[in-house]
C-alpha cells in the first residue's frame, strides 16, 4: 500500500502530516520544526534556501527571497486581485512581471519562474523532509487550498504537486480539513448528534468561513464565504506602514531598510497576540547605520485592523444568513490559521457566538495538515487524472489506471541545480533553463523498520510483514471506541462498527460557475452552494447565431458577477471550429458536470450534429487577448485570400507562421513569447505587407500609365522603387520592406495630384472596375490624352486631365473597392 502525505500548503507557513498508528501526526522538517515558512531564496553562491533559512537571508538580500506566492498562483497578470496583492508586497521584494502567456512570473536568483514552479520547489522540499522524518516514500498527496480558491487556482496547485513528484489524490478545502481535525481530536470527538460547526480560517494570505454539519459518518459543507486577499500578510502591511510613519514616511527601499521594517512589523504582530506592548528596535538603519527604538501597543494594532475586522464580521454574518442559520445554532466555532491568535479576532467571535462556543483545543497552525492526513486515511479510491479518460473509483492498490495506463503514483524527481525547479528523473535537460540533468538521480528515503504484531519480525521496511504478509500500519484511522487501527478508506471501524467522528465531506461550490454569453453576461451552470461531484445535467435554452463566419467560443467563469463575465475568475475555454455553414439561430445543447476537484466537464451539440466533448483549457490567456488574436487571425486569412495571386512565397510563409500563433491564442492556448509583443508584431507585419503590396501596385500603375505625363528620370526612380519593394517582399526582409515602401510612397506622393488621379482612373477603367458607360468615357479620355502627349499639345493635355478628374469624381463609389478585412473572430452562445 502506498502512503499518502497530507499537506497544508500555506501562504506564510506549510505543514505536512500523515496517519501513523491511526492518528494524524505532524512530520517535522529537517530542522525539527512543525511548520516550514513558505519562503524560498537563493544564497550568495546560488544555493536554494527554504523556510527559516530564506527568511534569515532576507535581512541581507531581500530581493532574492520569495514569500506569499500562494496569492499569485493560478492567476493572470491583468487580474485585479493580482494587482491588489502586488501593492501589499514589501518594496524590496523580488521583481514580479507578466509572463509570455499572460500569467505571472517571479524572479528567483537568475531565473523568472511561475508561481506553480515556485510552489513545486517548496512542495519538493516538504516531500523530502517528510520522507526523511517518516522513513517512508510519499508518492501521493492530499493538498489543501482555501475554500474560496477558484478552479484555476485549484488546478495550479494540482500542477505544482505533480511537478514536485506527487500524484495528487485529492485537493481538499482547508475548512473541510479543519473539520476532520475537529472530528478526531481528543476532547472534541464523540459527537453523536449532528452538530453545526463554523470554521473560521484566517491564514497568512486568505480568509475563509465555512458552515458545516458534522455527525456520525457524515461531514457536509453547507455554505462558504471568504476573501482571497485578506490575511496575516495584510496585517503585517498595516503595521509596516505604521512603523514607516514613525520613521518619517520616506521610501526605505533604496537603503535596504524596507525588509528590516517589514520583519519588525511581523514580529510585533505576533508579540501583540500575547502581550499588550511590543518593543521595536531597528538597527542598523539608514545609510549611516543608525538605530531607532519605539513601541507598538495592542490598541494601536486593533485600530489599524478596524476595517479588516468589520469585513470579517460581515462575511461571517453573510455565511450564516445564506446558510439559514443563527449564531445560536452554531455549536462550535473552530479556529484555523495563525492569525486567529490575535485577541481582537477571537474577541469578536466570542461576542457573536459566546465564549464557550469558540474552540481553542485544536492548534490553528496544524489543524489543516491534520485534516489532510485524515482525508488521506478516509480515501478509498482514486480517479484517473488523464483528461480524456473517464475511469473513476480505482482502488488505492493500483499503480496505474486500468483504462489508459496513466500512472497513479508521482514520478521520481530531481532538483535542477541552476533554477531549482523539480524535473522527472532521467530528464535530459531542465525544461525551464536547459541545464543538463542527465547525471542526476532521485534520492530514496531510508526506510523505518516496523515490528509485525502477528509474527514479531522487527525489521520490516514496508507496510506488510516480509514473513507473514500481515498488514502493518497502512494509513487508516484508529477507532476511538475499541482502539483498532483500520485499513485505509474506512469511515467506520471494521471491528466494532464505531464511528470515527468524521467522514469524507460533501463539498459545495463557493461561488457561481457559468458560461459567458454574447452579451457579456453569465448563464449559471452551477449556482454557489452546489454539492459536488455532480451528475451530468443538460442546458437546453442556448443558441448559436449563424452567418458570422467565425467559431463558437465556450468561456467558463467562476464568481459572483453575473452581469459581467470577465469580472470573475476564468476557469477555462474551448473553441469549436468555424461556423460558416450556420444560418439563423441554431440550437446549442450543453451537458455539464463537476468532478470531485470542482473541475468543469462539458459536452455540447450544435443543431442536430453529434455530441462532442469539450476539453476546457485553463490558459491564463485573458478572454480579451483571445478575441483580439481571433480578430487578427481573421484579418490575416482575408488578406491572403484577397491577394493570393500576388503575395510572395516568403510573405505567405511568414504570415502563415504568425497565423498559427494567433490561432492558438484565439483558442486560449499559450505561446512562447510576450502576448502584447506578439499582437503588436502581428499587426505591424500585416500593416507592412498591406502597405508594401499597395506601394508596389502604385509604382506599377505610375510607370505604366505615366509615360509621357511624367519625366523619364522620375519614371526610372519609380521603377527602381517598385523593384526594391518586390525584392524585399520576395525575401520577407522586414527592414528592407519598410525602407523600400517608404521610398515608393514618397515618390508616389510627389506626383502632381491631377496626374496621379488621372493615372489611377485610367487604370481602374482598364481593369473593368467601372460600369460600361463610364468605362467607355474614361478610355476615350485616355486616348485623347495620349494623342495630346504625342503632339506635344500642353493645352489639350490639361483639358483631358481636367476631364479625367471629373470622370474620377463621377466614378467615386461606382466600383467595389477591396475593403478592410472584417474581424470575424469568434462568437459566444446566446440565450434562445
From TrEMBL:
InterPro entries: ATPase_NBD, Heat_shock_70_CS, HSP70_peptide-bd_sf, Hsp_70_fam. Keywords: ATP-binding, Chaperone, Nucleotide-binding, Phosphoprotein, Stress response. PROSITE patterns: HSP70_1 (PS00297), HSP70_2 (PS00329), HSP70_3 (PS01036). Gene3D superfamilies: 3.30.420.40, Actin, Chain A, domain 4 (3.90.640.10). Pfam families: HSP70 (PF00012). GO terms for molecular function: ATP binding; ATP-dependent protein folding chaperone. Transmembrane segments: none annotated. Residues 813-832 are annotated as: Disordered. Belongs to the heat shock protein 70 family. This is Molecular chaperone DnaK. It comes from Streptomyces fuscichromogenes.
Amino acid at each position: 500500500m502506498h502512503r499518502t502525505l497530507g499537506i497544508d500548503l500555506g501562504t506564510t507557513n506549510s505543514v505536512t502530516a500523515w496517519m501513523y498508528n491511526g492518528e494524524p501526526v505532524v512530520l517535522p522538517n529537517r530542522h525539527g520544526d512543525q511548520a516550514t515558512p513558505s519562503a524560498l531564496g537563493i544564497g550568495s553562491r546560488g544555493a536554494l534556501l527554504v523556510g527559516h533559512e530564506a527568511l534569515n537571508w532576507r535581512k541581507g538580500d531581500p530581493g532574492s527571497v520569495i514569500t506569499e506566492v500562494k496569492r499569485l498562483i493560478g492567476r493572470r497578470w491583468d487580474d485585479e486581485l493580482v494587482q491588489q496583492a502586488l501593492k501589499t508586497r514589501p518594496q524590496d521584494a523580488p521583481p514580479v512581471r507578466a509572463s509570455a502567456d499572460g500569467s505571472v512570473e517571479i524572479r528567483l536568483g537568475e531565473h523568472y519562474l511561475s508561481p506553480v514552479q515556485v510552489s513545486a520547489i517548496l512542495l519538493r522540499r516538504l516531500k523530502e523532509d517528510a520522507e526523511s522524518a517518516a522513513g517512508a516514500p510519499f508518492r501521493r498527496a492530499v493538498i489543501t487550498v482555501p475554500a474560496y480558491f477558484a478552479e484555476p487556482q485549484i488546478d495550479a496547485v494540482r500542477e505544482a504537486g505533480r511537478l514536485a513528484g506527487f500524484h495528487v489524490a485529492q485537493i481538499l478545502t482547508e475548512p473541510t480539513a479543519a473539520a476532520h481535525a475537529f472530528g478526531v481530536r481528543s476532547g472534541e470527538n464523540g459527537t453523536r448528534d449532528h452538530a453545526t460547526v463554523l470554521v473560521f480560517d484566517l491564514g497568512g494570505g486568505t480568509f475563509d468561513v465555512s458552515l458545516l454539519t458534522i455527525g456520525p459518518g457524515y461531514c457536509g459543507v453547507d455554505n462558504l464565504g471568504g476573501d482571497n486577499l485578506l490575511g496575516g500578510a495584510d496585517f503585517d502591511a498595516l503595521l509596516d506602514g505604521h512603523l514607516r510613519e514613525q520613521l518619517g514616511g520616506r521610501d526605505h527601499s533604496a537603503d535596504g531598510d524596507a525588509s528590516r521594517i517589514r520583519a519588525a512589523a511581523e514580529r510585533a504582530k505576533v508579540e501583540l497576540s500575547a502581550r499588550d506592548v511590543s518593543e521595536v528596535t531597528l538597527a542598523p538603519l539608514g545609510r549611516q547605520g543608525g538605530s531607532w527604538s519605539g513601541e507598538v501597543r495592542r490598541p494601536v494594532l486593533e485600530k489599524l485592523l478596524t476595517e479588516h475586522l468589520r469585513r470579517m464580521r460581515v462575511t461571517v454574518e453573510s455565511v450564516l444568513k445564506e446558510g439559514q442559520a443563527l449564531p445560536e445554532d452554531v455549536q462550535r466555532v473552530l479556529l484555523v490559521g495563525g492569525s486567529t491568535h490575535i485577541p481582537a479576532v477571537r474577541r469578536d467571535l466570542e461576542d457573536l457566538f459566546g465564549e464557550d462556543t469558540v474552540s481553542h483545543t485544536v492548534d490553528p497552525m496544524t489543524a489543516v495538515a491534520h485534516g489532510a492526513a485524515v482525508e488521506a486515511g478516509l480515501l478509498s479510491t482514486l480517479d484517473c487524472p488523464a483528461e480524456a479518460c473517464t475511469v473513476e473509483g480505482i482502488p488505492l492498490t493500483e499503480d496505474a489506471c486500468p483504462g489508459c495506463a496513466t500512472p497513479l503514483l508521482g514520478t521520481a524527481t530531481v532538483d535542477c541545480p541552476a533554477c531549482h525547479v523539480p524535473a522527472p528523473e532521467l530528464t535530459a535537460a531542465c525544461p525551464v533553463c536547459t541545464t543538463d540533468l542527465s547525471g542526476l538521480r532521485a534520492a530514496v528515503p531510508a526506510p523505518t523498520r516496523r515490528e509485525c504484531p502477528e509474527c514479531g519480525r522487527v525489521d520490516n521496511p514496508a507496510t506488510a510483514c516480509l514473513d507473514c504478509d500481515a498488514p502493518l500500519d497502512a494509513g487508516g484511522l484508529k477507532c476511538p471506541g475499541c482502539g483498532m487501527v483500520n485499513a485505509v478508506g474506512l469511515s467506520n471501524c471494521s471491528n466494532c462498527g464505531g464511528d470515527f467522528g468524521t467522514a469524507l465531506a460533501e463539498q459545495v461550490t463557493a461561488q457561481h460557475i457559468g458560461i459567458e454569453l454574447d452579451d457579456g453576461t453569465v448563464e449559471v451552470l452551477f449556482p454557489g452552494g452546489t454539492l459536488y461531484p455532480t451528475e451530468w445535467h443538460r442546458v437546453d435554452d442556448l443558441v448559436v447565431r449563424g452567418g458570422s463566419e467565425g467559431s463558437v467560443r465556450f468561456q467558463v467563469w467562476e464568481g459572483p458577477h453575473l452581469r459581467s463575465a470577465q469580472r470573475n475568475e476564468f476557469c477555462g475555454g474551448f473553441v469549436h471550429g468555424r461556423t460558416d455553414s450556420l444560418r439563423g439561430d441554431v440550437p446549442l445543447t450543453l451537458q455539464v458536470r463537476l468532478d470531485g476537484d470542482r473541475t468543469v466537464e462539458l459536452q455540447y451539440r450544435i443543431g442536430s450534429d453529434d455530441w462532442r466533448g469539450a476539453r476546457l483549457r485553463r490558459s491564463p490567456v485573458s478572454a480579451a487577448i483571445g478575441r483580439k488574436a481571433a480578430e487578427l487571425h481573421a484579418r490575416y486569412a482575408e488578406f491572403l485570400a484577397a491577394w493570393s495571386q500576388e503575395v510572395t512565397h516568403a510573405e505567405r510563409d511568414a504570415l502563415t507562421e504568425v497565423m498559427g500563433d494567433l490561432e492558438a491564442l484565439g483558442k486560449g492556448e499559450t505561446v512562447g513569447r510576450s502576448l502584447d509583443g506578439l499582437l503588436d508584431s502581428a499587426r505591424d507585419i500585416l500593416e507592412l505587407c498591406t502597405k508594401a503590396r499597395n506601394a508596389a501596385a502604385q509604382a506599377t500603375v505610375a510607370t505604366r500609365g505615366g509615360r509621357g505625363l511624367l519625366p523619364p528620370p522620375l519614371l526610372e526612380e519609380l521603377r527602381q522603387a517598385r523593384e526594391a519593394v518586390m525584392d524585399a517582399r520576395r525575401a520577407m526582409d522586414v527592414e528592407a520592406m519598410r525602407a523600400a515602401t517608404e521610398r515608393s510612397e514618397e515618390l508616389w506622393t510627389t506626383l502632381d495630384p491631377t496626374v496621379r488621379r488621372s493615372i489611377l482612373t485610367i487604370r481602374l477603367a482598364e481593369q473593368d472596375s467601372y460600369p460600361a458607360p463610364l468605362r467607355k468615357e474614361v478610355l476615350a479620355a485616355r486616348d485623347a490624352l495620349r494623342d495630346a502627349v504625342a503632339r506635344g499639345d500642353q493645352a489639350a493635355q490639361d483639358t483631358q486631365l481636367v476631364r479625367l478628374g471629373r470622370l474620377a469624381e463621377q466614378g467615386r463609389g461606382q466600383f467595389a473597392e477591396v475593403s478592410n478585412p472584417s474581424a470575424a473572430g469568434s462568437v459566444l452562445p446566446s440565450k434562445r
